[in-house]
Structure formats: C-alpha cells, structure tokens
Design goal:
CATH architecture of the largest domain: 3-Layer(aba) Sandwich
Largest sheet: 7 strands, mixed
Strand order of the largest sheet: 1-2-9-6-5-3-4
Shape: globular
Order of helices and strands: EEHEHEHEHEHEEEHHHHHHHEEH
Number of helices: 13
Number of strands: 11
Bound molecules: nicotinamide-adenine-dinucleotide, glycine
C-alpha cells in the first residue's frame, strides 16, 4: 500500500492507495478511535459489487453498519436527496461522532460529503472512492456540493475527509467509459505538474487500459500526490487550485452546448488539446509538446477533434462559466508539459480559431 498525506494543519489526512484495502477499513477506523455505529452512503451498483466486503470487514472489527442507498446519477446531487439522507440519518440515530463512509464515484463522494459537512454541523467523513475519477480527483481536496437545477456544484462547502481509502481492485469492474473519464483527469494532472509522470503515461497506457494493478496504483498515487500539493497551497480555491481546471474551460462549455451528450472525460480531453493549441499559437508552447499531448489523449482512447457544435454557442457557454473574472474568460495554458500558467488574456480570435478547428497540430 502507498500513502499520500494531504497536509492541511489540523485538518491533515492520509490517502491510502493499494489493492484489497476495503476489507481493512474497520482496522483503520478503530485505530483512528472510532467504534460502534457508522453509516455507509452508496449506490446500488457499487453496493452490490463492494458492499459485502466492506461490511464484513467493518462488522468483524466490531462496527454496527447502517447502509443508505442513493440511486445512481448526477441528478441525485440535489438538496432533495440530501434532505432524504438527513431524515434517514436521524432514523438510525446517527450522532456527531458517527462517521459517514462515502462508497462510490464522484456523485456519491460529493453528495455524502455535503451531507457529512452539514448534518449536526459536521460529522466525520471517510471517502472510499471506487471510480478512477473519484480516486484521482474528486475524493481529494474537500470540495463537497450538490447541484442547483442545471447549475452544477452551486451549493457546497469545503469539508476535508479524515481518511481516503482508494482500493485499486475496485477499478477492475469500471465500465470502459468511466475509466476513460478518469484517465482524462490523470492526463490533466501529468500535463500541469508532472513531466516525468507524463513520460510514464506515454510508455504505459496499454498496461493501464488493460487494468494492470501496478500501473493503476502508480497513476492514482502520482495524480493524488499532485492534487494534494496543489490543495495544500490553496485549499479554498483562491488562486493556484485553478490549474486543476486545465482543459475544463472549453470542456465545460462543450459539455453544456452538447446538452451533456458528450461525456465529461471526452470534453476535458478535447479542451486540453484546444488549450495547448491556443498556447502554441500564442508562441508559448512548442509544437512537439502539442503532438505529445495529442498522442497520449489518443492512446487513452479519448477524442481530440472538436465536435460539430456552433463556436458562437461554445463561446457564450464559456462566458457563463463560474470561473469567469470581470467578464474575461480564464484559461489555464501550458508553457511545456508539466508547467502551466493562468491567464485572462487569450484573444477571442484565437479561441474562435481552435473552436472551428482550423488549427491542426
Ligand atoms: P459517478 O459517481 O456518477 O459514477 C459513475 C458510474 O459508475 C455510476 O453509475 C456508479 O454506480 C458506477 N461505479 C462506481 N464505481 C464503480 C465500480 N468500481 N465498478 C463499476 N461501476 C462503478 O461518476 P464519477 O465520474 O465518479 O463522478 C462524477 C462526479 O464527480 C460529478 O458530479 C462531478 O461534479 C464530481 N466531481 C467532483 C470533484 C470534486 O473536487 N469534488 C472533482 C471532479 C468531479
Ligand atoms: N476538481 C477541481 C478541484 O478540486 O479544485
């Protein structure tokens, strides 16, 4: 097992990364001083796959387990579902010291995290991410939220977990599309802050896609290390943490203009390459680096071509992005692989050029 510490003073915590960790959860919770009752929040698919092994381990270590099920899907990240969960928590007499275990992907992590942050003004939270995206991104860093209508993550807070347990074995049952979603964020992490890690990806994507345990553990470990370093420097998302949105400025706009018919990982992949092309056209990023990025995205099975959507609509959607500052669209751009900067000064004509796809590197 490998460990990454997220160093946030009194709120510091560990991320455990390895295979077969679910069954050991009870021991680690006992070591942290917990005993008695706890609550697992999960969805039916994940519960069917991993509920028993987690439950058995916890019961063996003397815990009394209550499992609360939430149907799958982004629409469950709502105040309504949170309200139902508060009700169920009171029904099972959950107290201030009762830990909530968020077992699932980013939807469960964000929702259960939000509930843990607010129920009784905050109860202990353990993130047990089971998608690649949740292991490398959403479970780390304390952003918890629900959506407000069409507006994603509008109601939320920062609430750090006490422990994250990323069991690599769970990735073996992920549908290919969900693996690709996570891979987009893995490539993002390497592109913004991990030149060596990027080389590792160039050399190992086949192993990763064939779910080689060692390769999966390495990419989760490296990505979590990068995210932890960024979060430690800017927990409240006031500056540096913005770099984690590399590829997301155009990506989010594509997601919304396509009416969410293009998946998140796909739009981030296209967005990362578009941002690299902008940086190249500004004379900042070497053309070879754009080619390297494109190759890795393709090897991961992610798209690189702009979809056939109206560029005017994409630009309009970008202006609605909540990352916008004083009417200017904020971009995260590469100087080189592993080295990024944040700028509000990208000329609209360059953006238009990459959106219509007449700049092919
Ligand atoms: P998800 O949580 O919707 O999970 C995708 C699907 O995979 C679900 O149907 C789930 O049941 C299934 N699943 C989960 N683990 C599985 C496993 N091991 N085997 C088989 N199936 C499994 O999707 P996601 O991509 O994990 O998360 C997306 C969410 O994460 C979005 O709501 C997004 O806003 C949020 N997010 C949050 C942050 C943050 O910092 N908090 C960062 C990025 C994304
Ligand atoms: N996913 C972006 C962040 O955690 O800040």
């Amino acid at each position: 097992m490998r460990k990454v510490k997220v160093a946030l003073g009194g709120k510091s915590y560990q991320v455990y990364i390895g295979s077969g960790l679910l069954a050991q959860t009870g021991r680690w919770l006992s070591e942290k001083g917990f005993s008695g009752k706890l609550v697992i929040i999960t969805d039916p698919t994940v519960n069917k796959l991993y509920g028993d092994v987690l439950n058995q381990g916890l019961t063996k270590d003397g815990f009394s387990v209550n499992t609360l099920l939430v149907p799958e899907g982004e629409e469950q990240k709502s105040l309504e579902t949170a309200g139902r969960l508060y009700h169920e928590l009171t029904n099972c007499y959950a107290e201030r010291t009762t830990p909530i275990l968020a077992l699932g992907g980013g939807v469960i992590g964000d929702l259960a995290g939000f509930v843990a942050a607010t129920y009784l003004r905050g109860v202990p939270l353990v993130q047990i991410p089971t998608t690649l995206l949740a292991q490398v991104d959403s479970s780390v860093g304390g952003k918890v939220a629900v959506d407000h209508g069409q507006l994603k993550n509008m109601i939320g807070t920062f609430y750090q977990p006490g422990l994250i347990i990323a069991d690599i074995n769970t990735l073996k049952t992920l549908p290919a599309e969900e693996l690709a979603n996570g891979l987009a964020e893995v490539i993002k992490s390497a592109a913004i802050r991990g030149e060596k890690f990027f080389t590792f990806l160039e050399q190992n994507l086949d192993k990763i896609k064939s779910l080689d345990e060692g390769a999966l553990e390495e990419i989760v470990f490296q990505s979590v290390k990068i995210k932890a370093e960024v979060v430690e420097k800017d927990e409240m998302d006031l500056g540096l943490r913005n770099i984690l949105n590399y590829g997301h400025t155009i990506g989010h706009a594509l997601e919304s203009v396509s009416n969410f018919s293009i998946g998140h990982g796909n739009t981030v992949a296209i967005g990362m390459l578009a941002a690299a092309r902008i940086s190249h056209m500004m004379g900042i990023l070497d053309g070879n680096e754009v080619v390297r990025l494109k190759k890795v995205i393709e090897q991961a099975g992610l798209p690189t071509e702009m979809p056939n959507l109206k560029s005017t609509e994409i630009i309009k959607a970008m202006k609605h992005d909540k990352k916008i500052r004083r009417d200017k669209v904020r971009f995260v751009l590469l100087k080189s692989i592993g080295n990024v900067f944040i700028t509000d000064e990208v000329s609209p004509s360059l953006v238009e050029k990459v959106l219509v796809g007449d700049e092919k590197t």
